[in-house]
Design goal:
- By secondary structure, this protein is mainly alpha-helical.
- The chain has helices at about 5-30, 30-45, 55-75.
- α1 (about 5-30) packs antiparallel against α2 and α1 runs parallel beside α3.
- The longest helix has 23 residues, at about 5-30.
- It is globular and about 35 Å long.
Amino acid sequence: MMDYERENFKEIYLKYHKLIKKIAYDHIHDYNVAQDICQETFIRLYDFEGYMPEEKIKSWLIVVAANIAKDMLKKGGKYREVVG
């Protein structure tokens, strides 16, 4: 995880999750897939092992979400759904 505390991760999520869902939705036009993209984006942030200054987190999240959405579109919008 990055050099900030896990509690700070929750604050970052609460601050940016709506923006990230909107960006994903703007690319995909499917609310459920946009939620999946948002979740994947924050998982990648949580798993990120490098250092990232807090002022760069927002732009990092935006780029990652847009890239995930574009990758899904390249694959024909297909993604694997895990059914439990």
